Amino acid sequence: MIRLFHVSDVHFGREDSAAVSWFDALVNAERPDAVIMTGDLTMRARRSEFDAGLAWLQRLPVPVTVEVGNHDLPYFNLFDRFFRPYRRMGKVEKLVERPLDLPGVAIVPLVTTARAQWRLNWSKGYVSRGALRRTLDLIAAVPENRLIFIAAHHPLVEAGTHASAQTRRGAEALATLSAAGADAVLTGHVHDPFDIAQDVEGRVIRTIGAGT
Description:
The structure is a single chain. The protein is an alpha/beta fold. It has a single domain, classed as Metallo-dependent phosphatases (Purple Acid Phosphatase, chain A, domain 2, 4-Layer Sandwich), CATH 3.60.21.10. Helices cover about 25% and strands about 20% of the residues. The chain is built from 5 helices and 9 strands, in the order βαβαβαββαβαβββ.
């Protein structure tokens, strides 16, 4: 039986050191098949925060994939945000939006962050047509007899949590991913855990959120 550990919103720069150490110990003891980190590795996308996050990720003795959260994009430097949003990540970038092909399951990334949006709150989710197309292309390349889990930062539809994602084109993306064969969508952002079986046009797809 394959085992995956899902973690999100660690926010290095304001991390809970005790929780990080607990997770390290758990991964080293249990040795899951992979760790899926669904965004907000950092608090303000500073180099020092990415360096701390990288040191943590490198301590995990299993394959890791990392999604980019809204906190992982430069906040104050708009030039960096618009033109080189991943520059501060350093070696973390090699783990970002990384598909994983594991025994019986494929992890496929979906980008839900945006450098800018036509609304005041850029922290909310957005699924561009290009991002969805890239994810669908990856799904099409998944070998047969694999479960397909999508990894994203923002929940595609609301899950009754205290915070909201308000992901634009999220419901449309969920329906499209379900039709393409996705079995689950793993997300973070709202800092509350959830696991919901969504009936999308007669097909069940699970939406699963990790807390912080």
